[in-house]
Amino acid sequence: MTRLLKNSLVRFSLGLAAPVALLLLWSAQAEPEGARSLAFASLDAIAAALVQLAASGQLLRDALVSLSRAVTGLVFGGVLGMAVGIAMASSPLVDRLAGPLYHSIRQVPLLGWLPLIGLWLGNGDDARLLIVSLAAFYPTVLNTYEGFAHVEKRYLEVGRLYDFSPAQRFRHILWPAALPLVLTGIAQALAFAWIGTIGTEILLGSGSGLGVTMATAQAQQRVDIIIVAICASGLLGFFVNHVLVLLRRQILRWQGAHQ
Fold first, then answer.
1. How many domains does the chain have?
2. Can you give the pTM of this predicted structure?
3. CATH number at residue 150
4. pLDDT in tens, 9-44
5. What does the alpha-carbon distance between residue 80 and residue 97 come to, in Å, rounded to a whole number?
6. Which domain, by its residues, includes 250?
């Protein structure tokens, strides 16, 4: 027991080493007489900004707005992506027709679509939603396609042996076999949707959201608020990803997945 406690304390101490070193380095840079003091905010100022934003309710509002955009884009892009991926994997004709187009447009950097989408939809929520949906669409299509296109032949032979209908084949063979990769695609889509959400909020810079707060704080040279918004964005993204990991484990418990 003593050795186990000692090992735990050692691991805990090692885990704290990097954050403590980072905080000390940051504090040194933020000293008033430091050469980079204007680019760094003191820890006291960051704490005060956190209290200010939390007390006013702005931090919670921005977090909920950004989360809502990311989840909405994930749902739209993910559902459409699964449908397109399944269609491409199930039909050689659809794959030949849609595959080259999909693989071509996904090479365009996501934010590279902003000028065109801005001309179509302006700089409002519709433009943001389209970008976030595209961010979720690409990885969902790719992973869904790979999952359905590479189902093991022995599973398909079982379906033929039992004379499954197309619906039974999909429900009992294709979907369970492809589900791990589909969920991997959704996890990747969530990450890209969150990046797309914060990125579009920063670049379009109107309305509300964590990214808008960062852009406004940059214009005001409020490094303390920028740091608070960045930390909130990271923590919220980590929380949502953790929830998705738990859901994945629950969904795939029948496979004995430990991911």
1. 1
2. 0.85
3. 1.10.3720.10
4. 667 666 777 777 877 777 777 666 555 556 778 888
5. 17
6. 44-255
